[in-house]
Amino acid sequence: MINRKATAVWKGTGKEGTGTMSTQSTVLENTQYSFNTRFADGKGTNPEELIAAAHAGCFAMQLSFDLNAEGFTADELNATATITLDPSKGQITKSHIDLTAKIPGITAEKFEEISEKSKKKCPVSQVLNAELSLTAELVSE
Question: pLDDT tens digits, residue range 90-133?
């Protein structure tokens, strides 16, 4: 088993309060978040942005493993995840990944097959209770 930790500290009301987030690795260390960073364009981070980063990173690594298992090595996998939060429901409703990939020797059909498999296999995909979608583009050198 592997355990990873993050800590959030919040002070004050939901709208006027402020908080910080820190991660075990210290990549985030007392990083500011607030109502404005979550629901507007304030400076700092927010939970949905961090979930998007986790989903993009997890998916790209899972795809790399799945490509390797099929005999391919990507020159580059560029994955951007967009998390959709519906404030009226207080719920994350969707995570969409836009992928651009450079993979020597792979066909478009094989690329699509492996990408879709990786979307479902990625551990972060499996934990999200939301619609998952993927747009994948294979580009040449």
Answer: 899 999 999 999 999 999 999 999 999 999 999 999 999 999 99
Which token pair is 38? 């979550």
Pairing of strands 131-138, 91-102: parallel
In the structure encoding, which two tokens stand for residue 40, read together?
Answer: 């507007």
- Tell me the HSE value of 81 on the side-chain side, using a 13 A CA sphere: 25
Residue 8 token pair: 């959030």
Confidence tier at 41 by pLDDT (50, 70, 90): confident
Please report, as a single letter, which amino acid is at residue 127.
Answer: V
- CATH numbers and ranges of domains, the chain: 6-39 (no CATH), 47-138 (3.30.300.20)
